[in-house]
Amino acid sequence: MTETVGTGAAAGRSKKKATNGLSVQRVFTTEGVHPYDEVAWEKRDVVMTNWRDGSVNFEQRGVEFPEFWSVNATNIVTSKYFRGAVGTAQREGSLKQLIDRVVKTYVGAAAKHGYFAGPADLEIFEHELTWMLLHQVFSFNSPVWFNVGTSSKQQVSACFILAVDDTMESILNWYREEGLIFKGGSGAGLNLSRIRSSKELLSSGGTASGPVSFMRGADASAGTIKSGGATRRAAKMVVLDVDHPDIEEFIATKAREEEKIKVLRDAGFDMDLSGADISSVQYQNANNSVRVTDEFMQAVENGTDFGLRARLTGEVLERTDAKKLFRGMAKAAWECADPGMQYDGTINDWHTCPESGRISASNPCSEYMHLDNSSCNLASLNLLKFVSEDGTFDAPLFAKAVEFVITAMDVSICFADFPTEPIAETTRKFRQLGIGYANLGALLMALGHAYDSEGGRALAGAITSLMTGVSYRRSAELAGVVGPYEGYARNAEAHQQVMRKHAAANELIRTHHSNDAAVRALASQEWQRGIELGGRNGWRNAQASVLAPTGTIGFMMDCDTTGVEPDFSLVKFKKLVGGGSMQIVNQTVPRALHVLGYQDEQVEAIVEYVAQHGHVVDAPGLRPEHYEVFDCAVGDRSIAPMGHVRMMAAVQPFISGAISKTVNMPESATVEDVEEIYFQGWKLGLKALAIYRDNCKVGQPLSTAKKKEAEAETEAEKVVEYRPVRRRLPKKRPSQTVSFTVGGAEGYLHAGSYPDDGLGEIFVKLGKQGSTLAGVMDAFSMSISVGLQHGIPLEFYVSKFSNLRFEPAGMTDDPDIRIATSVMDYLFRRLALDYLPYEKRVQLGIFTADERSAEVEANYGGTMDLEALRTSVDSSPVAARAGKPESETEADAHSTAELMELHLGKAADAPLCMTCGTKMRPAGSCYACEGCGATSGCS
User: EC number(s) on record (predicted)?
Assistant: First the structure.
């Protein structure tokens, strides 16, 4: 809870400051108790290797972290964010040092610039920020952790927009500025539409080169300069207006290069990602987007032509068929995923500062859109931290957290450094912020909502509206304390109009249950309060919110999902303390099952099934109408492309900027499908949209392996014929009889063994003597027995007959197998438990009740620590330690993306991490490595 003390400054007098500051109250912390004293700390060793060659990428031992932080978050924060040379006394060795370095810098700046009423409020501000960072409630973007509180420049922004004019000096300066930004570890975007086309004349009488030609030089520069001196390439966005005379050439640039890649690959060149010869191909270091206008989209809709205009005079140089041009964009995107689409009409219709210039470009991931030569610092909240024990979203708590975060973000602009003076001037004048969130997909699943559902979209829209509404309300309060942004006076009317548009969109949210209704109601109050305060004070910030990829910081917060994305998969690759790894079922799955009303026994059975299969289809006891709750980005039940678009449309009216997201499409998608996605994006009011069709690019990480497999298939093999020999049981042999009940049907299983303890025969008694069922079971038993005696492994039978579904099915009287999908399912799971060693049962996903309980205790709220789990792997039903892999193939998995490839039986279109070699996973419009935290984007 916060209050503003003092009347504040008038809207048009941005330089005036009030004498009093903000008065704040504690939310998460307790007076007299420091946040660090509330948690248990432990020392850990961080050793990160490249699994391909075994080389050590990073090593720091004895680092201090809270016990509840995952190994993955520990590794990423230690390797990415701790400052100082490793092995020296100056090197940070504790999370406390990292948080203090950042938070104390923010508090010092807040005190210097008069943000708070007194020392007590400053202490509360410090403790609340510390508590939220410590408990992974939110995180600043990576540049804050890199730079704040160090001897380096205090760069806090990850997103930059540049500008280029139609002069050689400006073009060369563009190359220089991009290089500086890439060197600093960030990315930039710009619009090239001011540059004359290749169809226009120069003042000297010659013909202009056109923007596409200048893109070559910038692309080569970006490919040479690696971000931050590290190993990932630069991130950049290039935009061209749809009415530029060179638009067709621009659209075709990357598609044409993709054709070149295919030819070179077929000729034997190494064209894989990071291959030795890929650098010979152009335009691979930027995302390309076409800026389309409402006029053009209406021409597409009506089937009319559209004029391409000269850059200097604005006259129409030629007219083109709008539908044909639109089809060309869709075809190019179908072939190589570029260009994306930016909808100029919607972008500038929601522009708070139109009097200061149009919005013509975006950052590389498309979430930040504002004036040229500007920047935006980001922070994201972990939505799953605001779910109450009763299964509701705690909107009041979320609002209080947003207040503190958005205040800190604005404070950072007071001390921040910027890569160029024009960017510094614009950012200080307009103070653009980008608060956002992560874990939306996990939140919806945990609350029992399908990602592609009306209820899911209603809750997502309400939460987003509340976040931005609170942010602007706090921005208006800050304007009353330290003054509105300098450019507000000139743009006051437009800014107020956009605020009213946000508030009106909030009232249009159709609620479906008490949860989203409560969030929307609070959002309505916040918008009204903000508009009233802003009318008196103005606003401190021209922009408040974006939805960023949250790649590295998402891992820092231990989020299951990034940004606005759905869950990537239901199985996760988890690292363990002391080394090793394990496969676990996403922790939101059992949480969602309990919300949906399933009992503990049913939850155990479904979780066990998911661990084995990677999806919920045909999971025992799971009702088909609940399948959609567990739909993911990839897998057997992947979310349809329009499901992603509809979610973006649900939250876009409540975002100041835009949304970093790529709509994944199946390989079977057509050019017409891409056209429909791009057209519906315009109709639904999105600001930007990009698609990626599965396997549309040649340079895939597994192409070399596929080539070897193809070569192996064509290689002639020597045929050797083997004949099985029956090994009969002795006259006297050990045996056991088990009585069982499946779905009310009673029976007996008699199993005979060889003296050396190998199963050799079974007899099943089920049904009345002389009945057809009893006869069939006798014949089946003899068939299995003969097969066992001829050397067919028991695990083969178990894999074939377990999980068969037919009646009778249901509850059993066996404590180790609570639910069976059929008698066959029960019999062979029982035989596996009695006769197969644990290592083989791990591969089959079959475990005793004690083993399942130990795993649930370890992963879903019990007291067993990860070290105990690591050293007692036999207690883990879904574990696959690095030293004891589930199978020879699963030993090849080193990330969640690679794990899903094994479940799906196909390669994922994602790059390999250049640092640790593992398969990255999608994060917004970018990719992020869950092994080391590296990203392919600008955050």
Answer: 1.17.4.1
Compute CA distances 210 → 14, 27, 178, 246, 841, whole Å: 42, 56, 19, 7, 64
- What is the rounded CA–CA span in Å between residue 169 and residue 553? 38
d(CA 629, CA 526): 31
CB-CB contact of 548 with 924 (8 Å) = yes
pLDDT, greater one: 264 or 499? 499
Structure tokens given for 117: 């009423």
* Residues with a known catalytic role: 363, 365, 367
Determine whether 263 is exposed, middle or buried from the number of CB atoms within 10 Å of its CB (0-12, 13-18, 19+): exposed
User: Looking at residue 925, what is its pLDDT?
Assistant: 66
99 within domain boundaries: no
**Helix (DSSP H) and strand (DSSP E) numbers for the chain:** 29, 25
Report the alpha-carbon distance of residue 797 to residue 614 in Å, rounded.
21
- Give the E-state strand segments of 101-226 in sequence order: 138-140, 159-161, 187-191
In this predicted structure, what is the pLDDT of residue 637? 85
Q: Give the gyration radius of the chain's Cα atoms.
A: 30
Distance CA 231, CA 225 (A): 10
Q: Which band of pLDDT confidence, cut at 50, 70 and 90, is reported for residue 859?
A: low
Q: Position of tokens 């029992």?
A: 448
Angle subtended by helix axes 322-336 and 671-683, to nearest 10 = 110
Give 148-184 as a 3 state SS string. Answer: CCCCCCCECCCEEECCCCCCHHHHHHHHHHHHHHHHC
Buried-exposed string 717-727: b where 16+ CB fall within 10 A, e elsewhere: eeeeeeeeeee
Q: What sign does the dihedral 65-70-73-75 (CA atoms) show? A: positive
Under a CB-based contact definition with an 8 Å cutoff, are residues 405 and 381 in contact?
yes
- Is residue 690 situated within a structural domain? no
**Are residues 329 and 341 in contact, defined by beta-carbon separation less than 8 angstroms?**
yes
Structural domain total, the chain: 1
In a domain, 820, yes or no: yes
Res 751 pLDDT > 80: yes
Q: What is the residue range of 765's domain?
A: 748-846
Q: Residue 868: is its pLDDT beyond 90? A: no
Tell me the pLDDT tens digit for each residue of 303-331: 999 999 999 899 999 999 999 999 999 99
Residue 432 within any structural domain of the chain: no
Residue 222 clears pLDDT 80, i.e. is over it? no
SS3 735: strand
What is the DSSP pairing of strand 433-438 with strand 374-382?
parallel
Measured between alpha carbons, how far is 343 from 291 in angstroms, rounded to an integer? 6
Instruction: Measure the N-to-C terminal CA separation of the chain; round to a whole number of Å.
Output: 31
